[in-house]
Recover the amino acids of this structure.
């Protein structure tokens, strides 16, 4: 995820020189973790800017640094603690927030000198901590803040978080402990934010939450009125209204529930993108049950077939965990068979990693690390072949693409409607002249490999 301050990894303490009295106080910001945490960072930065603070691009230019942490996997916790230590060494005044902040004693034990620690999506608490150690300017000017708020993504796409927390209780996950139960945002609030993003030039909205298909469930799908239309607070109405804005709308982190079935026709008709990000996690009913996930892989395959019947262009991205406690070779082979049948477009695979406080840690029959890695490699080799075959089938087509920028080799990098930023493949364009980021154009696909497409602007 992008961060306002890069990580120089330099040893030693480099506290900034005192700033001139006439300068507004400046905040440095390091944002770690997932897109949902990135949205939290954007909200905090927007409030800070509204209060008149400057946003510093480096440790040296900051009067205080905020570190938004990730606390899910052990590796993410280690990265977060390292970032806190770096910020302390480079600046000396640090406020910590985010998922790891749900365990303040862990942070205080490692770094007792941090100024304050707050948990995830606690914007007010973060602001209070900053005010206590770096008071805001005397006269803030709200007009300095754009209507859509400050964003850490490129100007042409943005994440739209529709809810906080999660109602599921997967045995390998502690997100509900860190971020609480499902709390859906009011539909009018979400749509107002989306409208502001489009007005600011955003060409692609990426809808995110911990479980997007559960949106509105906690509000009992309450009716509301927006732009003279009576709507229900549910995924279907949300997607339909976002589709009216005339930009790409992409769904992330959905569960394969009937709520999703209802939006597939919207994808088929072009209202939203034909793209679903669904973390299936496994295919063995026995392992899914141990994970406390929906344990009906057969019905999932049937659902995928029906989705593709309605919307043949549909791209599906998913993630899987191998080496879960008790996973046998037969369970793993069942997962490989599922992938052969489902032919998903994009797949990420992780080896099981115990998370402190997760119920799965108490399960018997742990899988040896070497076997976990061997299974992960086998799964990714299979998926690489499937991905290469699916991409090769698109060669010769003309597809709309959105330009992201230029890579280190000077090539124009774009994405098709079937690829999300950061996590999916690219369309590498042979363009004679530079094409500005955010440009939408048609491209003829001329080649492919296991991950990316190659093309050229179509006349």
């Amino acid at each position: 995820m992008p961060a306002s301050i890069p990580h120089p990894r330099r040893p030693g303490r480099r506290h900034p020189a005192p700033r001139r009295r006439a300068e507004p106080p400046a905040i440095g910001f390091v944002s770690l973790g997932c897109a949902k945490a990135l949205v939290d960072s954007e909200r905090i930065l927007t409030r800070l800017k509204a209060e008149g603070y400057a946003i510093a691009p480096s440790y040296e230019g900051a009067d205080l640094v905020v570190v938004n942490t990730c606390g899910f996997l052990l590796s993410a916790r280690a990265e977060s603690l390292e970032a806190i230590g770096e910020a302390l060494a480079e600046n000396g005044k640090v406020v910590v927030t985010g998922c790891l902040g749900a365990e303040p004693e862990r942070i205080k034990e490692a770094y007792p000198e941090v100024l304050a620690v707050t948990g995830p999506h606690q914007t007010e608490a973060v602001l209070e901590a900053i005010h206590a150690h770096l008071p805001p300017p005397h006269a803030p000017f709200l007009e300095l803040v754009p209507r859509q708020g400050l964003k850490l993504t490129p100007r042409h796409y943005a994440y739209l978080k529709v809810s906080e927390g999660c109602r599921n209780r997967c045995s390998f996950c502690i997100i509900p402990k860190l971020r609480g139960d499902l709390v859906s945002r009011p539909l009018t609030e979400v749509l107002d934010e989306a409208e502001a993003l489009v007005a600011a030039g955003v060409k692609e909205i990426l809808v995110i939450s911990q479980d997007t298909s559960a949106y509105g469930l906690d509000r009992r799908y309450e009716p509301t009125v927006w732009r003279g239309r009576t709507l229900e607070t549910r995924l279907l109405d949300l997607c339909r209204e976002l589709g009216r804005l005339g930009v790409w709308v992409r769904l992330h982190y959905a569960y394969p529930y009937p709520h999703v079935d209802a939006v597939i026709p919207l994808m088929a008709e072009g209202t939203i993108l034909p793209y679903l990000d669904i973390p299936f996690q496994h295919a063995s009913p026995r392992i899914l049950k141990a994970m406390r996930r929906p344990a009906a892989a057969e019905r999932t395959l049937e659902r995928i077939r029906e989705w593709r019947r309605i919307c043949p262009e549909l791209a599906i991205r998913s993630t899987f965990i191998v080496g879960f406690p008790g996973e046998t070779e037969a369970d793993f082979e069942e997962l490989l068979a599922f992938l052969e049948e489902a032919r998903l477009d994009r797949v990420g695979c992780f080896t099981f990693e115990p998370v402190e406080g997760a119920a799965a840690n108490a399960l018997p029959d742990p899988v040896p690390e070497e076997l976990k890695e061997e299974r992960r490699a086998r799964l990714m080799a299979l998926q690489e072949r499937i991905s290469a075959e699916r991409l090769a089938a698109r060669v010769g087509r003309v597809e709309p693409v959105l330009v992201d920028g230029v890579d280190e080799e000077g090539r124009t990098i774009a994405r098709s409607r079937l690829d999300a930023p950061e996590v999916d493949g690219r369309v590498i364009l042979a363009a004679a002249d530079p094409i500005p980021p955010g440009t939408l154009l048609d491209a003829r696909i001329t080649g492919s490999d296991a991950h990316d497409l190659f093309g050229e602007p179509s006349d």
User: Anything to note?
Assistant: The CA atoms of residues 172 and 281 lie 11 Å apart. The two ends are 35 Å apart (CA to CA). The first strand starts at residue 26 and ends at 31.
